[in-house]
Structure formats: C-alpha cells, structure tokens
Fold this sequence. Notes:
- The complex is a heterodimer.
- Chain A is mainly α.
- Chain A contains 16 helices and no strands.
- The longest helix of chain A has 34 residues.
- Helix content of chain A is 75%, strand content 0%.
- Chain B is mostly helical.
- Chains A and B meet through helix 3, helix 6, helix 7, helix 8 and helix 9 of A and helix 1, helix 4, helix 5, helix 6 and helix 9 of B.
Amino acid sequence: MNHLATSTPSEMAKPGKVRRFFRNLNKYKYLYLLMLPGIIWYFIYKYLPMYGVIIAFKDFNFRQGIWHSPWVGLKHFEFIFTFPDFYRIVRNTIIINIYELLFAFPAAILLALLLNELKSAVFKRSIQTVVYFPHFLSWVIFGGIIIQLLSPGDGLVNQIRQLFGLEPIHFMVESDYFRGIVISSLILKESGWAAIIYLAALSGIDPEQYEAAIIDGASRLQKLFYITLPGIRNTIIIMLILKIGQMLDYGFEQIYVLYNPAVYDVGDILPTYIYRIGLLDAKFSMTAAIGLFQSAIGFFLIWGANRVARRFGDVTIW
Amino acid sequence: MEAKYSIGNFVIGTILVLFAICTFLPFYYVMMASISEPHSVREGQLLLWPKGFDLEAYKIILENDRFISALVTTVTRTVLGLSINLTLSLMLAYGLSKKYLPGRSFFMIYIIITMLFNGGIIPTYLIVRATGLLDTIWALVIPSAISTFNVILLRSFFESIHESLEEAAKIDGANDIYIFTKIYIPLSMAAVVTIGLFIGVFHWNQFMDAVIYIHSPELQVLQIFLRDMIIQMEMATLLGDVGAMNQRTTGLSVRMAAVFLASLPIIVVYPFIQKYFVKGVMLGSVKG
C-alpha cells in the first residue's frame, strides 16, 4: 500500500502525505494519546530550560522574563573569565574529580575483582548485601553520619585518637582533610554499587578460559592479567569515557552536605557555586553562563575521550 | 585444582570483610547511639555497643512537630511522585515500544537528547518558577516526573512481550488503551515493581529539589529536617557557636534516632530491591 502511494506523481504526493499523516494519527490515536502527557512534560521541563540557557547572553530580570530581558552578548562570559573565584571553583571541581578517578574509580574495579575471587556463594552474597546498602541511603544520612563520626567532641574517630593520647582534630573545618573526606566517603558509599557493572562483565567471561588456564598451570595473578582484566577491559573503557565527560560536574548533594564556609577554598565546586551565587544571590545570568560553560566543556570532553578510545581500541560509546 | 583454603583466599576474604565492616560501621553507630540512654551518650562514650538500653530518644523525636510535618511532606511527595512518575513513564514507554508506530524513532531521539543536554540548575529553576510550582508540593513531584532511563528500561521490557498477544486482542476488537492496561501492564508487573521501588527510594532520599524550590518551613522534607538537625548543629560547634554547642550535647541519641527512622523505609524495601537491581543495572547497561 505504502509503495503504491509513494510512486504516484509528485503533485499527488503532498496531499497524500498529509492525508496519510492524519490517517495515521487517527489509526494510532490511543497510542499517541498515551504518549502525549510525557511528550508535553519533556517539552516544558527539559526543552524549555535548554531554551532558557539564552539568559547567559542576556541581563535576566523577572519583570521582563526570559524572552524580553535585554541582550548583552558575551558580557557574562567576559566577566567570569576575569573572575578569580571562577578559576578556584573550576580547579576545585577538577581536583575532586581527579581524586575520584585515581581512587574511587579503581576501588570499584578492585572490589569487583576481589568479590569475583570468592569461592563461597553465601559469603559473596553477604558481602554484596552489606556493601550495596549505603548506595540507597541519602547523602544527608550518610554524610551526616560521617560528620558525626569525625566530630571533635563525641565522634568515634577523635575518641580513638584520644585513647592514644592524641589531640582531637576538627576534621570538617580543615581544608587539608576536606577532599580526602569527600573521596573516602564516596568510596564507602558508592563502590559497592559501582562494582555491580564490573561484576556483570566478569560473569560474562567464559569459564572454559579459566579451566584451560588451570590445566596449563597458570597462577592466580596470571589468570587475572591474561583472562580477567582483558575480559572487563571494554567495560572499564566505557565507564572511563563516561567519567571523563563529567570532569566538570560532581554530586551536588554530597558536597552540599559535607562542606561549610571554612572549607569553601577547597570544597566549593561548580554546582554548589551556581546554586549559592545564582539562586541565593540571584545572579541568574552570570551563573547560567557558568552552567553553559560547564555543559560545553563536558560535551567536548566526552566527545574527545570517545575519539581517543576509537583510535586506540574498538569500544566507544557511540 | 586450587586449594579452597589458600593464603590468597584468606587475604581476599579478610580485605572484603574489613571493607564491609567500614561500610557498615557508620550505620551501625547510628543504631547503637539511637538506643542508648540519652544522658550517657552525652559524656562522649565510645559507642561500639549501646550504653544502656533506652527508647527515650525515639519517643522524643516522634513527639517533635517539625519531624512529623517533614515526615508527612516526604510521604506525600513519595506517594504522589511514585504514582505520577510510574503512570507517565509507562504510558510513554508503551507508545515507544511499538515498532510500527509512525514517529517512534523521532520521539526516541526527542527523549534521548535530554540525557545528553540539559538546561542546568538556573534555567530549570526559572521554568519551575514560571509554571507556578515554586513552594508547592508539586515542585518536588513534577520537575522529576519522568526519568528517561526508566522509560528506556520499560520500553525494552514491553518490546520483549510477544506481539501475538496484541494482535489477538485487536482481532477481538480491543483498543490500544485496553491492551495496554489489561494485557501489557499485568504482564510487566515485575518490571513495574522494580522501577517503582527505585522511584520510591529516589523520592524518599531526594533533597536537592527541596533545597532549590521550597522555602516555606512547613513544606520541608525529612532530609532537610535531618540536615538542619545533624549537620548544621555539628557545623555550629565546629565553627565555635557555643550556644548551639550546649544545645547539641543534649541530643546525640535523639538525632541518631531521627536518622534511623528516616532510613527505616529504605531498610524495609532493600531486600526487595536487591532481588531485582542487578538485573536492572545490567539491562540498563546493555540498552542505555
């Protein structure tokens, strides 16, 4: 039927297309009707904010709204690039992300590899049950407990220090400790959850490879380097590409819970800064410009990482 | 064959047990502190086991009006959020799962683009404000009403259901809405429950939206209440606010009881979630 319709002369094709459009609309009306609320929702809460990004090039005020506020070109970008705070915030964000990449990223892989070595299924399941759990607690709860544990007065860590005759440390207000606390708490809370994807990849490795290696007398380490790691290599690369795309982003909730004015110098990151300066100080246009900068860099990073991965291997995310 | 009890296995087992203990210790501390006698905790005792046994802290927190009001808000947003989120996601995913539907690939791209690009905190805030949601319970429900990831997951699930069921129902004269509600949803209950649990946990734990969109104290969610109670007091101590310092020493076990109560629903649903989530994460990694 379709074939016949498209082969008619071109002057007939247009009304035919329109008619077919309405015929389809009628034929599948219930399906479209089911999708309609979702489609409208995406438009309002996903696409309109994307359009709202234009306030980065305007002097936004509530009276005139997004559309009528005056254009100012690159004024806000020129301002942020000469603004010392901006470089500090970008540096903090990148440093925390690099720490995450160096410590939290491998921790999840290591955890998966260790779990994979366990012979007893019951033991493995018990450990998994425990280490996955904190992922489901909110950062307010988990971060709150961490702060409590590190409290100079009745916190567990400082009580142990005092048992050994050491002075209590005010961990949460010391800039030197802040990033360490952020990454350690991230490892405790999220490694288990992050390990699942590697465990899934590990379970996909053909057991016959291991059996053959055992017959050949391979040691545990040889199996690790010649079978296991190559077997999850692709998963690691994909996770790495995704991570690199987020180098200018970091979990708002975690930092928001853990930080305080005493550690803003090392702990303030782009999302928390945008929230504080943008919403609390009502500098909408300037922080929208920072947000746009952040998304643009993020996009180029992920695109670049993907290109590098394509050049050196066979896995890419698109 | 390798020996089951080698040194290597012992080392691996020990490392894992130690890591598991570290992960669990913070939460264990909460439980211990919450059931201790409030006044013995005050003296700054090591809390590896409870000091006495006393549920006084739970009584105090359950009589706190702000705690109750925050609890009500959180329960409301979780129930509303869960129903709206599931309904919208299921309806959208069902349409997207029909390979014959004209425009299907366009709408797939339409939703996937939003995973790659977003307006950011400030423009989203302005839209939420413009649609009149600010400082209402709907600000906690509507802006997060659909998760693209869940829609894709549900769509894959619907696609795995055999088309012959739909064809047979159509021959019997059923329309799409009937087929969707009476055939596809009952067949997808496992997926619906799994995703529902995740959405529920998300709403229970979420507080960034409350920080950004809610200003009136009577609409504060439980997580914000906890944050004010634990963290701000702790910070006040750290920054040398003596008044707050005296106040806080009265209530370590009370604060920990509040934390435990706020985690209780998560503890209750955790075994159910765990049963499914490995499957969910794997499915997502393949399709996403």
